[in-house]
Amino acid sequence: MDALIRVDDVSKRYDNNGPFAVENVSLEVAAGESVAVMGPSGSGKSTLLNLIAGLDRPTTGTVTVAGQRIDSLSETGLAKYRRQRVGMIFQFFNLLDDLTVADNVLLPAQLAGLSRAGARRRADELLERLKISDHRQAYPARLSGGERQRVAIARALVNSPELLLADEPTGALDTATGEEIGRLLLELNQAGQSMIMVTHNPDLARRYASRTIQIVDGRLAQDTAVAGARP
Amino acid sequence: MSARPVLRAASGGVTRHRAQTFVIFMVLLVSTASATLGLALLTAASGPFDRAFATQHGADAAVAVNSGRVTAAQLAATKRAAGVSAASGPFSSATVTLTDQGVSLPSSLLVGRASPGGPLDDLTLVSGHWPQRPDQIVLSAGDGFFPGIGSKMRVTTAPRKPQLTVVGIANSITNTADAWVLPSEIGALRTAGAPAAAEMLYRFAAAGTNAQVRGDVATVSAALPPGAVGGFSSWLSARQQATGNSSILAPFVEAFALIGLFMSVLIVANVITGAVVASYRRIGVLKSIGFSPVQVIWAYVARVGVPAVAGCVIGVAAGNLLAIPVLHQSAASFGVGSQTVPIWVNIVTPVAMCALVALTALGPAFRAGRLSAVQAIALGHAPRQGSGYTMHRLASRLRLPRPVSIGLAAPFARPARTAGTLAAIMFGVTAVVFAVGLNTTLARAETGQNLAATAPVQVSLATGKTWLPGSRQDRAIAQALRSQPGTLRYVAAGQTELSAGALARQVNTEAFYGNAAWLGYDLISGHWYTGTGQVVVNTAYLSQTGLTVGQSTTISTGTLSVIARIVGQVFVPGNQPALLTSVQTLGGTSANLGLDQYDVGLKAGVTPSSYVGRLNHVLGNGYNASGPEGGQFYLIADSLIAMLTLMMAAVAGLGVLNTVLLGTRDRVHDLGVFKAVGMTPRQTIAMVLCWVVTPAVVAAVIAIPVGMVLHSATADAMARAAYTGLPASFQAVYRPVEIVLLALSGLVIAGVGALLPAGWAARARTATALRAE
Predict the structure, then answer these.
(1) Is A80 touching B (CB cutoff 8 A)?
(2) Which of A72, A166, B175, B177 is the least buried, fewest Cβ under 10 Å from its Cβ?
(3) How many domains, in total, are found in chain A?
(4) Residue of chain B whose Cα is closest to the Cα of A51
């Protein structure tokens, strides 16, 4: 099976003489996998996710996604990569407060130049599927945390990306809502969506990921398949 | 209160926010420089003349007296007349013709004085010495004619045509004479049969206006026998002559200064308020670690004060550097020595600008000082929720690329800041509209004066002498003109000075030998003369005679006179009355009229410079063909307009840069989100540039009529200062295409100002932006 993501000996430091945030990490993720990246605060798991998302560049090493080296892309190339191949979900949702739910979801599609009708159709379909179509004209500030994260997921999926990256997707939610979002992500994965999820929550990782990676002090400490998980 | 933490907090703010520090520095630099330049120019308009007038005890009026009709005692009695505060004289005088190396000069007023000093009209000896012998003469510096010390001049109108040696050059601030000799020599230099004349100089208690001076002279005249007073010259005319160009420049410099002042106040307030408001979060942090309200206030006043003071100091120096070339020109025209920017301007300008900065900074700083730490931190976050949501919703319906529609709606999230941006662009566009209009008006005025569009070539004798119609010289010129294939048409003209109506001063009269309508003199009212008995005159002629177009006027040489109808008011600026007509209209009064020059029109496609070269070759020595000369005044005015407009546009651009920079700071997290979901750097730049499009369009819509009204009012004021009306074509300078282009200047100012922060936003690292609070 070809790897969807290949990270080769990647290191990242923010200052020339500073410590490594990520050091000599290598890993592969296959298409359809759901990988949980775990580790203590400051261990480098979000940095690793940012490198795969093309939000940051490695200091050394290479990152290849769907056969495309992204560490050497220009800023424009990275933007196109993000809008076509990656959907991002953040702990604090990162929705744009001055846009309606529908406009937030539509935004990546509009940036990608999708037809107006096509983008609306896809957004409506996602809002329906994620059970937030009643709020399509609402502003994010009026929604609950769970609803906002659903909007964020819809936005991440609007361009049908090959890869969904989630940084602490339940970190800002109460337990029940976190469960709900976790189940939603599982459903997406079961439908074939490749996914990498950064989380502190071992229970979430165990229940909703097929593989767990442990990062400690920027290094890959452990890479294990979750028992009972789908292959 | 300990100063150390305050200084540390202030210096931390200065170094951390380098871009804002730079904007504050630049805005203050440009504002202070333009204010210094404006004030320097305004003081230059009258300062040197007034100083020289006071130093030289200038005379308010120089009265010509017919000595044969008045006794010395009667003249002495006028020194005690009502309103007279000081008097000097009588000085015997004579009107003579002087020649220099055979060339006749215009008639000159020769005054006999034993010494240059005196209680009134204390002459300044510029070079040489005062006459010590009968055959010596001192010339007036005011005439601008310096044959040189030791030169010989002949008085051709005196019975024995005596030769005089130039021994000095002197300056009378009110031009009371063209030359001076010893008093004992006047009698021998007077034209045979001419009545004995003298000059009395007076200072009056009230002489601020022409009416007051006329009234004062009337009082003096009334104390003397009828016919004793022949005429007078007022110090106000001399002042006008000396300060003429500066007076004409003053209205537009004042207009620019007004725009600059408003813009400086607005942008300084905007920059500093923005800087303080943008730092609320930091203020909250400072308070939470123990800063007192007073320490917070001082930390922020000091933070904006450091670049502001630096900008003011360098701005004053820059203003001085910019003012030097203009003041140099001005000083040369006053003939009163070099001019510098007055010390008080160099002190008052930066102090006023710093006071402005302190006042505008204190308001938000006080507010910051009063806020609790939590409130300050909360206020430091992005715009209030709800602001601009409707505009975003409406913009999303537009069929525009999404970065564009998001950018267009963004300004509505911060209405106050957007109003600041709008006002900065509005002032900038007003300056541009005003400057373009003024430039066009001045260009038309220059062409109207030198007739470059219709008669770009003039031909005269190399000696500057006149010649008679039909003479050898006249035939030679006409033949040369006919021989040139580029010649379209030509007309000969002669100039003389004639009396007109009740005017005490002579009227510059230009008479044409043939059809001159094609010269295209710009008309303010009426029409060009179409036959004998008709004249056109300038505004000074009408205002000084009290006549209007359509009325008749009498023109005379003193012995012969003709009556002609004024059919048009022509654009000939200046306080000197001027009359243009055909030689036939002048009739007998043109007996002594010679020819001065030929005005030549060229066929299409013929360049004046090559034509002049060929014509001079054909004419040979003794003749001079020349192209139109650009007036020094227009050169100075154009340079000033360009410089001031650039400064205003630069300040406007900096104002935009500041607000866009604050916007990108406010929305840095949103920018990270945009980029995270796939916005490219180019789309980011387009979005940020679109933030300023709406304010730029609204600003242009407001600024264009404001600039046009300002142009109209200023052009009128300049024309009044130049003693002329304006032809309608000088005011109607904005064509529809130009208005559209001028409207685009708002977008240019806004775009240039926003480009830099837009670039920064595009280059910002997405992960870093997402981490920003």
Answers:
(1) yes
(2) A72
(3) 1
(4) B767
